[in-house]
User: Which sequence fits this backbone?
């Protein structure tokens, strides 16, 4: 199969895997992403769970790759499958010293998203002992999320329906509390003394409110010292795709003192907003010396080009 034109929608499971793991060595990163998204929808939605498990197993084969960017996406995708079959692959990644921090972070988060109670001892171990603050904070969130999911609160709280259908690192704050105002949520969001889980809950409540005012409140979180916290705000901005967030995202992306995970997520969010101004900035960072930033920009630009080209013609080049 040519690396240039890849018709992911009509490929077999094995063809998708081969492009994902770049078996032939000539697959474009954007095509590898496309293969991953198709495997994800089979692994997530397929009524045929046996076929879904094959898709999950194929997705996990990609952990042998070098691309930190692609592997972190793979971990994220496995966390969205609602299937504990994915958990052992993710535990192995969290425990691996050879995997980059961003990949291990996403694996720990994914275990939280799966609500995997069996992973609690492992997550506690890394919360207490991992040298990376991003990993420790992720484990803290994942543990709190698993406890929350199994608590009475989860059954009684009234939550806004998540229109993005993502499983998030924390649920939004309940809609029936007295805190349901942008100003109050912003205070919780930026309270560095509050538990991270609570601050994330405020973050996702602000996302669900989704107004310009809520977006600007979220942008105030970019002054936080935690890379993890800032990358999550950028992720949420990608979901919202509200142009009001563009100046703050460009500030994060261009600031080379920010962690790779923050700049990567800012690039990806800008890719989904894709105004003319944004495309020029992505062109600029597509030569960045930080691989996750550079690759994020390249994939975003490729995806943009693909979506704006004549898809029919594109698909028939195969
Ligand atoms: Fe992440
Ligand atoms: Fe990411």
Assistant:
């Amino acid at each position: 199969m040519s690396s240039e034109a890849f018709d992911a929608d009509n490929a077999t499971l094995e063809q998708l895997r081969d492009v994902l793991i770049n078996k032939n060595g000539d697959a474009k990163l954007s095509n590898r992403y496309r293969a991953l998204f198709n495997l994800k929808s089979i692994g997530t939605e397929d009524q045929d769970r046996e076929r879904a498990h094959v898709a999950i197993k194929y997705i996990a084969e990609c952990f042998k790759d070098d691309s930190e960017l692609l592997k972190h996406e793979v971990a994220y995708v496995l966390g969205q499958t609602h299937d504990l079959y994915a958990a052992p692959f993710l535990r192995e990644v969290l425990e691996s010293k050879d995997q980059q921090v961003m990949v291990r972070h996403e694996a720990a988060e994914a275990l939280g998203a799966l609500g995997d109670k069996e992973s609690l001892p492992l997550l506690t171990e890394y919360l207490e002992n991992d040298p990376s603050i991003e990993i420790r904070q992720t484990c803290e969130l994942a543990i709190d999320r698993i406890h929350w999911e199994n608590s009475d609160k989860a059954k009684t709280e009234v939550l806004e329906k998540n229109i993005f259908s993502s499983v998030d690192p924390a649920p939004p704050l309940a809609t029936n509390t007295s805190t349901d105002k942008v100003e109050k949520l912003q205070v919780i969001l930026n309270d560095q003394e509050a538990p991270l889980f609570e601050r994330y809950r405020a973050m996702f409540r602000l996302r669900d409110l989704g107004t310009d005012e809520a977006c600007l409140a979220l942008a105030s979180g970019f002054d936080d010292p935690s890379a993890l916290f800032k990358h999550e705000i950028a992720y949420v901005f990608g979901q919202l795709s509200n142009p009001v967030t563009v100046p703050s995202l460009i500030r994060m992306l261009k600031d080379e003192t920010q962690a790779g995970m923050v700049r990567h997520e800012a690039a990806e969010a800008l890719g989904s907003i894709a105004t003319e101004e944004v495309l020029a900035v992505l062109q600029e960072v597509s030569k960045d010396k930080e691989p996750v930033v550079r690759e994020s920009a390249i994939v975003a630009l490729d995806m943009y080009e693909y979506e704006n080209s004549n898809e029919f013609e594109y698909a028939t080049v195969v």
The chain has two domains: 1-156, 158-318. The domain at 1-156 is CATH 1.25.10.10 (Leucine-rich Repeat Variant). Residues 72, 264-265 surround fe (ii) ion (ligand 2) (CB under 6 Å). The first helix runs from residue 13 to 20.
